Amino acid sequence: MISRAEVKPIGEMTVLVTGASRGIGAAIAERFAAVGMNIVIHYSASHEAANEVARKCMASGAKVLTVSADLKDKEQILRMKEKLLDHGMEPDILVNNAGIAHYGLLSDVSEEEWDELMAVNLKGLFLCAQAFMGRMVSQRYGRIINVSSVWGQSGAACEVLYSTSKGGVNAFTKALAKELAPSGVTVNAVAPGAVDTSMLDHLQGDDLKLLEEEIPVGRLAQPDEISSLVYFLALPESGYITGQVISPNGGWMT
Predict the structure, then answer these.
(1) What is the pLDDT of residue 220?
(2) pLDDT tens by residue, 167-207
(3) Which pLDDT does position 50 carry in this prediction?
(4) Is the per-residue pLDDT at 68 higher than 80?
(5) 240 part of the active site
(6) How far apart are CA 49 and CA 30, in angstroms?
(7) What is the residue-wise DSSP string for 53-85?
(8) pLDDT for position 5
(9) Is 185 in contact with 240 (CB distance < 8 Å)?
(10) Between the CA of residue 170 and those of 195, 236, 246, what are the distances in Å?
(11) What would the CATH number be for the domain defined by 9-246?
C-alpha cells in the first residue's frame, strides 16, 4: 500500500461517474469538477443532458469526457474502457451511480421488469467494478463508491425490486471492500434517503408533504448534499473508511 504522501493530488485524478446526466450523478460530477479533477460523464441515452453537465464541469476548468454505454452489456462497458484509455482517463475513482427505480405491488411485477432492474442496478455495478478496479489494484490506490438507497437497508412496501437491488449493492460493497483493502482500494456505499430528484416525480402535493413531515429535518435532501459525502469518501485522507454503508437521510432512518 502506498503512503498518503505518495498519492497524486486529487486535482490530477480521474473520476468516472455512471448515470451522470442528471440528479445525484450530475451533482457528483460537478462537485469533483470544482477541484479540477478529470471527469468522465457516463450516460445511457440522455445525450443533451450529459453535454449540459459537461459544459458546467468544463466551466470549472475540468477536463471532461462524455461516454455512452448500456451498463447491462459487458461489451459496451469494455468499449467504454477502451475510449477512456485512448484519452488517458482511466479512473482512479469509480462512482457507480446509475440506477433505475420501480414502484408497484410485487404481485404485479413481470419477470422482464425484475430482470431489467437487476441488470441495471446490480449487474452494471458488478461489470463496471470488474472493468476498472484492475488499474486501482496495480497502482495500489483507488476508490469505488456505490450509490445505494435507504430502502436497501430498511426495505419499502411497493418498492420490493428496488429495495432488493440496493440491498445487493450494500452486500456487494461490504464484500468487495474486504477483497480490495490489502491493495489500497476502498469500497463504500452512500445510501441516501429522499432526495429532490426526478425519482420522486411520482409524488405530488399532499403525498410529498406527508413524506417531508416524516423526515426529522422536515425536507428532502438536495443532490449536492449527497455529492459532498461522495467527495469526502473519495479523498486520500478517507482511506481508513471502507466497507461502510453511510445513509444521509435527515434522521429519517437510524
Answers:
(1) 92
(2) 999 999 999 999 999 999 999 999 999 888 766 666 666 67
(3) 97
(4) yes
(5) no
(6) 13
(7) HHHHHHHTT--EEEEE--TT-HHHHHHHHHHHH
(8) 57
(9) no
(10) 19, 22, 10
(11) 3.40.50.720
Among the listed residues 43, 141, 162, 231, the single catalytic one is 162
- Cβ atoms of 43 and 50 within 8 Å: the answer is yes
Angle, in degrees to the nearest 10, between helices 124-138 and 160-180: 20
User: Which residues, in sequence order, are CB contacts of 143 under 8 Å at separation 6+?
Assistant: 92, 93, 94, 136, 185, 186, 233, 234, 238
> Could you give the angle at the alpha carbon of 44 between the alpha carbons of 190 and 202, nearest 5°?
65
Q: What is the pLDDT of residue 212?
A: 85
Helix (H) or strand (E) holding 117: helix 111-118
Torsion of CA 192, 196, 197, 199, to 10 degrees: 70
Let me know: does 126 contact 168? Beta carbons within 8 Å: no
- Residue-wise pLDDT for 30-40, tens only, equals 999 999 999 99
Report residue 134 as a C-alpha cell: 484492475
The three-class DSSP label of residue 167 is helix
Q: How far apart are the first and last CA of the chain?
A: 34
pLDDT tens digits for 122-178? Answer: 999 999 999 999 999 999 999 999 999 999 898 888 889 999 999 999 999 999 999
Residues 39/13, Cβ–Cβ less than 8 Å: no
Backbone angles phi, psi at 94, to 5 degrees: -115, 120
